[in-house]
């Protein structure tokens, strides 16, 4: 794959020896010290099988105290560490580049408390997102984020990547929903910022430093998050449009016409639809027609089934009359709703099955957002498929190029052009997936040198030996001691 080839192992890092293993066995117990080849091989490779490390050691701490001991020890021994959660990250951030020790918090999956009046949930970082949502469903609440990886990703990883997802347009960013964190720094210091107050203006709000830090500033061990009430009525419409201009007009109409009940607004082009239909078991297009170039999913969430449904039906009829949509269907039941979602959530899986994936996750001004897909199609011609889909509601395009086998020439046609184009349109080269290893040296397309320099000084302050997830997020050049 296109993993950065020009990264050298930092010579200041030690390699693990038998004394280290016996230390970890003493502190953690044998079951939490994994050297088994098979378990190590899956922990060394990312979800897309694009990035592969050569770690000889996977540690599974059971609580904050053990994480603190691990980091304190690794810091003193200058052993590099890669924090790992569900390992569903898409930028190579969750796996070692070389022999970094993998610290997976998956065993730290206890729910600590739920304040039933306010909906404030406190849990350990290793809780799987879907499990948290299932727990909350019984209590009349829901997780404010929802992504295709919910079955494996952990809330610690979600916070570390500042994950966006399908409900971002309704519930906003984790920077808004996360009320507190417990974080362990490289030297083992435990930062208890696990407040659960919705308002606390006492000094700098340091938890925000760790949200989106991708494991480079410390290990998140506990999360306090505000969970919204689970409302009684959810409706989902699947619509077909003839062109991108209709999609963006539909978004504007939805924001105005559906307003507060709009909970998701996703789009996919016909190339994405074709790939899902060809690669994903059971995927079926509810609105098949050669005239349909784009598909939109609109979800509404409210408190009155009849009222909400009528509102959505009126919206569809108006949109049809106005020519914004060519066809539309409202899910009649939960099964049909999940079959609609299956199409949108199946694109990532379809891409993997189709061969090599060149994945770009861009924030762009909505009126320009699809231009880059068309530009890329012109550049690549028949050498590759170009898919455009994503969270149109918050201006997040997932542009994915697909070839049966990885091809350097295709890659050269994509980068740096796509980053330069995004930068020229003042977009972000990483809307929600983070920079990881894939884009560690690309941050300058979206952040000024002064800002990156300040980030590097904060990184050095918090992790002077640079052992936390080295080679990722920030350019090596900014971290080398002058
Ligand atoms: P991992 O992949 O294990 O790690 C991700 C990063 O966080 C790494 O840098 C790692 O070092 C760090 N990290 C993990 N746990 C901790 C911790 N406890 N403390 C400190 N650092 C830690 N992402 C989106 O934003 N929106 C989407 O809609 C979306 N959809 C997806 C759909 C599919 C099918 C897949 C496979 C992925 C998708 N993703 C999406 C990407 C990925 O799921 C998210 O980035 C997710 O938040 C990663 O969580 P994780 O637990 O798997 O973390
Ligand atoms: C999504 C998943 C990753 C990708 O589906 O919303 O975040 O680019 C993406 O397929
Ligand atoms: Zn996404």
UniProtKB/TrEMBL annotation:
GO cellular component terms attached to this protein's record: mitochondrion
Catalytic activity as recorded in UniProt: (R)-2-hydroxyglutarate + A = 2-oxoglutarate + AH2
Keyword tags: FAD, Flavoprotein, Oxidoreductase
Entry keyword annotation includes Flavoprotein: yes
Keyword Protein biosynthesis: no
Gene Ontology molecular function terms on file: (R)-2-hydroxyglutarate dehydrogenase activity; FAD binding
Cofactor list: FAD
EC category: oxidoreductase
EC number: 1.1.99.39
Limits of the FAD-binding PCMH-type domain: 51-230
Function: Catalyzes the oxidation of D-2-hydroxyglutarate to alpha-ketoglutarate.
Family, similarity comment: Belongs to the FAD-binding oxidoreductase/transferase type 4 family.
Name of the featured protein: Probable D-2-hydroxyglutarate dehydrogenase, mitochondrial
Source organism (scientific name): Dioscorea zingiberensis
Lineage of origin: Eukaryota, Viridiplantae, Streptophyta, Embryophyta, Tracheophyta
Residues of the whole record sequence present: 139 to 620 of 620
